[in-house]
Automatic annotation (TrEMBL):
It is found in: Cell membrane. It comes from the Bacteria. This is MFS transporter. It comes from Nocardia arthritidis. One of its GO terms (cellular component) is plasma membrane. Gene3D superfamilies: MFS general substrate transporter like domains. GO terms for molecular function: transmembrane transporter activity. The keyword Calcium does not apply. The keyword Cell membrane applies. Keywords: Cell membrane, Membrane, Transmembrane, Transmembrane helix, Transport.
């Protein structure tokens, strides 16, 4: 997420050897516990929601088929990769003052340390998805995790700002490889209700990691503690890469057509749009120019795909009446949730004078809500139907945003509601995108989904953040606008019957 905290007026102080050792021990304990929780969570989530569901053919060779949870072992390295990404992305924000003081960063360099990761991630998503289709998603996921590890160690050892920025740039590219591979692998390995469960674990894990990241960053945000955090994430990434080769079955498309003009247009379009959104609050003219380039490139990309007999990304998927509404719900959910987190953060810091640590604690219920929504959504969808649960989640998120606009001093319940709504939307809407596609199209859907999330997060912060700063009472106006943005998507008609895909070709 492109959401950050303002820097508090802190100075760097030397830390003692005892304090340094305590940070090492604390980080190792937290990350070790996180690994064990992910393994147990994978098992418990599956056993809690799988009753009565038709079982598909196990995909792990050499593992007993009468052990149901063995089918879910592939989720362990994927969840570890998502957790590392969430922590590595969000723990940097509260630690930025210490990083800047340690490396002597200029204000512009500080912005690049934060902004370069979502920029590189968005620019690399399409290429990463197609690379997984051609060379195998297991291999691309492992390469992304190894890239995490290498860049984490380089960043931890950085002595100049630009070394750290370069490492963070490659980290963003590695994040694209991890995200694209995980999403496409889930779509290819699991089907029906199992896919919903898998997406619930994926969404919940990222929500938890993104919620705890600022807290971990705050704990390590003194002296050289940030270096320990980066190195620890690198160790976990290496473990996840090793488990990827051991536990994750490979999947790929049988025929991949690389088109360099399409690749260039996608990179230019996504990079231009993300950079424009980052510049929008500070430099409207530059943002307009970058936005023009980005939108123009994306339009050129779309037109080229529609003309190609073998498109680089199958834009025609949007013609499926069950695809576009769910994609819009996922994008709008991400946009309004990121806007809520950003606006509440600014309100707590600027209006109440809260410290970044206090803000992180105040926003923790949002992360808890994401986890609850993600874990409970498969059971709710099975009990009440996917359409009803999706509609209820949109209504809940819109009502929570409206509540935040009326009483910004009481955020516990509404910010939790925003998180629950996002957790349900991120699980059910994302899983629904794969319902009518074949395994050959899993990579296309994964890329389209993650591009939507990336653009949604950026647009939410940029548009609603700009709206909040344009009026004297901008905070409630922006929150109401966010609520009105997602509310119309609550209407959900029954999904039309689609000609069944042959079982051999079905995704999963």
């Amino acid at each position: 997420m492109m959401v950050g905290f303002q820097e508090p007026p802190t100075t760097t102080t030397a830390i003692s050897a005892a304090h340094f050792g305590f940070q090492c021990a604390t980080t190792s304990a937290v990350l070790g516990r996180m690994i064990s929780i992910l393994c147990v969570w994978t098992r418990l989530c599956v056993l809690a929601g799988i009753d009565g569901i038709h079982q598909t053919e196990p995909v792990i060779i050499g593992i007993s088929r009468n052990r149901l949870w063995h089918k879910w072992l592939p989720m362990v390295p994927m969840l570890l990769g998502i957790a590392v990404q969430g922590l590595a992305t969000t723990m940097t924000n509260p630690a930025l003052p210490a990083i800047a003081a340690d490396l002597g960063m200029s204000p512009r360099a500080r912005l690049w340390v934060i902004d370069v990761v979502p920029l590189a991630l968005a620019a690399g998503l399409v290429a990463a998805a197609r690379a997984g289709d051609q060379w195998g998603r297991r291999r691309v996921l492992a390469c992304g995790l190894i890239g995490y590890a290498v860049c984490g160690l380089i960043g931890a050892a950085a002595t100049t700002p630009w070394v750290l920025i370069a490492a963070r740039t490659v980290t963003g590219c590695a994040a694209a490889a991890v995200l694209a591979s995980v999403v496409a692998s889930i779509g290819a390995i699991y089907a029906a209700h199992e896919r919903v469960l898998a997406y619930g674990m994926w969404t919940g894990t990222f929500g938890a990691a993104a919620g705890f990241g600022p807290i971990v960053g705050g704990l390590l945000g003194t002296g050289s503690g940030w270096r320990i955090g980066m190195a620890a994430c690198a160790v976990v990434a290496v473990l996840a890469a090793a488990l990827t080769f051991r536990l994750l079955p490979d999947s790929r498309a049988t025929a991949v057509h690389w088109d360099l003009p399409s690749l260039g247009l996608s990179v230019a379009g996504l990079a231009g749009c993300v950079t424009a959104m980052q510049e929008l609050p500070d430099n409207l003219l530059l943002a307009a120019g970058l936005g023009f380039v980005g939108v123009g490139s994306l339009l050129g990309f779309i037109m080229r795909q529609l003309r190609m007999s073998t498109p680089f990304i199958a834009i025609r998927i949007f013609r499926n009446p069950g695809f576009t509404p769910n994609w819009l719900r996922a994008v709008a959910g991400a946009a309004t949730a990121s806007a809520a987190v950003y606006l509440v953060t600014q309100h707590l810091i600027q209006s109440r004078g809260d410290s970044p640590a206090a803000v992180g604690a105040a926003l923790l219920p949002e992360a808890v809500g994401v986890v609850l929504g993600a874990v409970c959504s498969p059971r709710l969808a099975k009990r009440f139907g996917q359409a009803i649960v999706l509609t209820a989640s949109v209504v809940l998120q819109a009502a929570s945003l409206a509540w935040l606009s009326t009483d910004p001093s009481s955020i516990l319940v509404p910010i939790t509601g925003v998180g629950i709504g996002l957790g349900v939307l991120g699980t059910l809407a994302a899983a629904a995108l794969f319902d009518a596609v074949t395994a050959e199209e899993a990579g296309h859907v994964g890329a389209i989904q993650e591009v939507g999330f990336a653009l949604g997060n950026g647009l939410g912060v940029a548009v609603f953040g700009l709206l909040a700063t344009s009026f004297d009472d901008g905070y409630p106006i922006a929150m109401i606008a966010a609520a009105l943005t997602i509310a119309p998507l609550a209407h959900s008609r029954r999904r039309p019957r689609i000609a069944p895909v042959p079982e051999r070709q079905r995704c999963g």
